[in-house]
Design a protein that fits this description.
The chain is α+β, with helices and mostly antiparallel strands. Helices cover about 25% and strands about 25% of the residues. Helix 2 runs parallel beside helix 3. It is globular.
Amino acid sequence: MKETLKELLKNSYAPLSRYEVAAIVKCSDGATFEGVNVETSSPASGICAERNALYSAIAAGYKKEDIESIYIMNKRSNPCFPCFICRQALNDLCNPDTYIISLSYNGTKSVSVQVKDLCPFSFGEKDLDNVL
């Protein structure tokens, strides 16, 4: 995954922040979906690498129970973690035990956490049960 993430980083489009990120979603059947962050002059219309890859898996027909792990890399020396918008998407579209594996660009560091650890006080479907 490390070398594929490095190659993907070349496709990141981050002219404003210069914070390139690549992500790969791995499904339980071995299928993978790739994503990079894409910035625009209106930040809200861009997309993060994690959601880009995750939404591609969902668009291909995969469900939360199919998502096994998500690999993330940036061009920095320390592993990176999903922003809070991405954490909400991960919380809603992945199982709590899905692994998020963040790798440093130089390959010397990696951190692995589960969605439930990344989002300990999450908001999701359970909070919407009494809406109607």
